[in-house]
Amino acid sequence: MAQQILLKNSDVPGLASFEVYRKLGGYASVEKTLKNFTPDQVTDEVKKSGLKGRGGAGFPAGMKWSFLDKSTSNPRYFVCNFDESEPGTFKDRHIGQLNPHQLIEGMILGSYALGARTSYIYIRGELFYVLRIIEKAIEEAYANGFLGKNILGSGYSLDLYCHPGAGAYICGEETALIESLEGKRGNPRIKPPFPAIVGLYDCPTVVNNVETIANLPWIMNNGAEAYAAIGVGNSKGTKLISACGHINKPGIYEIELGLPVEEFIYSDEYCGGIRNGNKLKAVVAGGSSVPILPAELILKTAKGEPRLMSYESLAEGGFETGTMLGSGGFIVMDETTCIVKNLLTFSRFYHHESCGQCSPCREGTGWMERILHRIENGHGTMKDIDLLVSISKHIEGNTICPLGDAAAWPVASAIRHFRQEFEDHVKLQKCPLSK
Amino acid sequence: MQNNTNISEFNTETLELVNRIISRYPEGRQKSAILPVLHIAQSENSGWLSSETMDYVASLLQIQPIEVYEVASFYSMFNLQPVGNCMIEVCQTGPCWLNGAEDILAHFEKRLGIKPGETTADGQFSLKAVECLAACGNAPVIQVGIEYHEKMTTGKADELLEKWQSENKCSHTNPYL
Ligand SMILES: Cc1cc2nc3c(=O)[nH]c(=O)nc-3n(C[C@H](O)[C@H](O)[C@H](O)COP(=O)(O)O)c2cc1C
Ligand code: SF4
Ligand code: FES
């Protein structure tokens, strides 16, 4: 069993209550940190731990914190990204629902390091029932002196609030999230300036993912070195993988980074193999946005080495033969799956979620959806396949935020690896796999 | 028959909740409370936002009505047309599709005699196709109000429909209460 940092006590009844969480050693990191560490020392510790952002982009957390503009007297904000809307990703919900105090404990540590006096947890509106669980936990943390004025007599004060979204994937992008938190449409901002300089209410702001933040208590309790000792290469620590699709045991697994993909898919400790003894066809390894890989390339790199669940190994081969760890949304497809139809659902999603600010994304996502719809339903032409590739190339890199890329990559990679299947749809004038 | 009543004002309890929410944001930043307050307003106005409702929210937040309209029309959870008493939202994105989400949606369509975006003639049910609800491990997934129903089957759909019908289920209750 790999080291468990995030799921360790998931099975303990009542873990969401302060009493149970505290009995299991909860909030010890706050006592230790406020007493023995300066804010900058906390940032150093997180830097040394090698913890990378778990929201998808994988940016080193400590480094992001160190960009925070501390030269102004403006307030600073620490914001938790609980938008969790990338298809295939359902790990943060698990933390919020079962272990909200670990998230709150992490919020206190991060806020202290950044000098934030008010912090927000931005949670997607569909998850209101989780928001209520977290708000109850926040109330308990106030009642027990871990939030509010002069926490544990340290002189440090912090207010923490939940803020619901209202159905918009784009609000997971950190600058759109900030706009949304200010009460506006979720239109991403042009960067620079980055939020660390001009963020919420034009003040220096750091946005981190739920899972990133939930790792902080363990790091402060056990030290950066202990954290950095887990994992492989520059992929430090553990990662929550939300596995779904055609596997025997869909669910949330905490893996030590570096676990072989093959073991993750086939071992009974994790996904337990493909349903009905079917053959593996393809995997989208890090949420719907990352390139899809066929079975042979997800299990082994193009060089023939075993593929590992790590930032580096999944990216090995670049976009030609590799993919990305992304958010850890691991979508498995067996031999019965129509790659075109699966892609059509993704393209519909990106079209629906485009905020509409940039024309390549606004127009391109709809265009790709319509062409895929045509191909899937037997009205496509061979030219349509090349047209899809061309549209995806024109979107990539030409938009304000990465949603454009996220819409382009699944299309480009599906055609790169499964072109034959697109051509079969055109030749047969129907989906070869439809019943 | 659809419910077209408009709230005129929140009651004291709801107003207290709204003021508590507004106080979470800095002085002069009360506009930040727009999403939570719209959620509450929608629940109090039979599940949708009429222009009167949005104007009222604007007055509570001391902002221009247009600022509320442009936000309300951006977010998919806000309904700008009347809806049924019980809104059934069926996820259709990849992971749910891989596990039979189309059959679940088709089953609801057949049982209710309506398509996504429509409401039954008696105003009891509305159907909506939605995107990933962050519960893909238990696909297929549907949402009704703040409840999730996971690992859906057509049998489970029948059971739920029967239950909702008998209890005259309302999906738009104040999400904070
Ligand atoms: C379209 C889009 C959607 C995103 N959705 C999420 C999300 O739901 N949750 C999240 O944590 N990060 C999401 N991100 C990444 C955030 O912009 C940001 O990188 C992240 O919150 C930073 O936190 P981290 O460094 O701890 O991962 C999204 C990015 C884009 C471009
Ligand atoms: S890339 Fe798409 S989602 Fe991002 S800002 Fe442009 S239009 Fe909006
Ligand atoms: S695809 Fe339906 S919950 Fe994620």
Describe this structure in words.
The complex is a heterodimer of chains A (435) and B (177). With 435 residues, chain A is an alpha/beta fold. Chain A folds into 3 domains: 18-228, Rossmann fold (3-Layer(aba) Sandwich); 232-334, Ubiquitin-like (UB roll); 339-428, de novo design (two linked rop proteins), CATH 1.20.1440. Chain A is built from 19 helices and 13 strands. Chain A has helices spanning 18-23, 28-36, 39-49, 61-66, 92-98, 100-114, 128-143, 174-181, 210-214, 216-222, 224-228, 261-266, 295-299, 311-315, 318-321, 339-353, 359-376, 382-395, 403-428; strands spanning 77-82, 118-123, 159-164, 205-209, 231-232, 235-236, 238-245, 251-256, 259-260, 280-284, 292-294, 308-309, 329-334. In chain A, the strands form 4 sheets. A 5-stranded mixed sheet of chain A has the order 8-7-13-10-11. In chain A, strands 3-2-1-4 form a 4-stranded parallel sheet, sandwiched between helices. In chain A, helix 2 (28-36) runs parallel beside helix 6, helix 3 packs across helix 6 (100-114) and helix 16 (339-353) packs antiparallel against helix 17. The longest helix of chain A has 26 residues, at 403-428. The relative contact order of chain A is 0.12. The mean pLDDT of chain A is 97. Chain B has 177 residues and is α+β, with helices and mostly antiparallel strands. Chain B folds into 2 domains: 12-72, Arc Repressor Mutant, subunit A (Orthogonal Bundle), CATH 1.10.10; 86-166, 3-Layer(aba) Sandwich (Glutaredoxin), CATH 3.40.30.10. Helices cover 41% and strands 10% of the residues of chain B. Chain B contains 7 helices and 4 strands. Chain B has helices at 12-22, 34-44, 51-61, 65-72, 94-98, 101-112, 154-167; strands spanning 86-91, 125-130, 142-144, 147-149. A 4-stranded mixed sheet of chain B has the order 2-1-3-4, with helices on one face. The radius of gyration of chain B is 17 Å and the shape is elongated. The two termini of chain B are 28 Å apart. Residues 170, 188, 354-358, 361-362, 399-401, 403-404 of chain A line the site of iron/sulfur cluster (SF4).
